[in-house]
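subagent[fold] <- orchestrator: predict structure for attached chain, return tokens only, no commentary.
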Amino acid sequence: MQRILFVIEDLLPMGPVQQLKLLADELIVKHYEIHIAVLGQKAFVPKDWLDSNIDVYFLNGDDKTPLHTMRDGFQVIAELRQLIRSINPEIIHSWCGRAELLMLLAIQQYPFTKRLRRIRLISTELYLQPSKRFFRQTLENKMARRIERMIVPHESVKQHLVENGYRESRIAIVPNAVTSSLPLIRTEAKSELTSMLGVSEDANIAGTVAPLQHRTRLKDLIWATELLTCIRDDFHLLIIGTGTQLKQLQHFAGLTQSKSHVHFLGQPDNLETIIAGLDFYWNSHLQEPNPTNLLNAMSSGVPAISVLGAGTNSIIRHQETGFAVNFGARDEFARWTKYLIEQTESGEQLADQGQQHVQTKFNKSKMVDGYVEIYELND
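subagent[fold] -> orchestrator:
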């Protein structure tokens, strides 16, 4: 039985943690011993993880705030190193973002400290990360030579890493999987959603899940809502997520005629139910190839409209599994949504085809088998 310590920034249920939870649950079934080191805030008690016999450790000294300062980082490195000694894992696996850098810093040999035994290091990156300063990128590339495998969900992430100095031979592609597991009744989910938002049960609701950042181009969706509500007063947009652009996006929406039709929901507990209650799912960016929430929406039978490009072209086949729009084309989101509202039979057929496509192509067994194959390698 292999003992794996996963390192992740937080357990907030909308981001990269969805793929990790699916993988960890399946690894438990396969008799792996799983531990999770959380570097950031303790936003809630991780009952679902504990119920799955997964040990969770929160390492940030100030566990009420996100991991965002160097002081937090130094605290985390020391605690993570101590945890590694205590657990003594065969594999340490960092999961997205700053987790890789802090993992690498924690396993370095420092003066007057006891040497850690040799441990296999694996890293996963699910997103296209923003550009880093030269010194930090050079430092990370040098330390990353200790990493046995970097696992990414799509060729575009692999190429992005190679361009930034990572060794191509050490990068493996394991596609994301549908993580939604609840057999939800969409009519009931829709009723819950309209009640939550305080809108009519006949309202048409599009939704998206994304970090509230400039890179995710959520302003495009607010513009599309403005265009659509000029002719459809029953249309609403739901934006789910947190981030630094919240106030700016709220201000921008407030300047439009559709301001009462744009809703911000933050970090809901019942994300799967909310997604299943949507009438349409909108995806406006390409920063997350094989987006988990797009896959989950389509798997729940929600028709999807998404920008087309590297990372979505294996999911969205225009007018077959969903509607594809050009990058930044606000009017195309509005146009295809109007079509789906008015052509209900065609919309249902599109949703059915999209559901079958993602459930077949992005099933969890393919993803889990890809990771297990790497864990079982003798590098």
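orchestrator: received. Logging for downstream: The first helix runs from residue 17 to 29. The chain has a mean pLDDT of 91.
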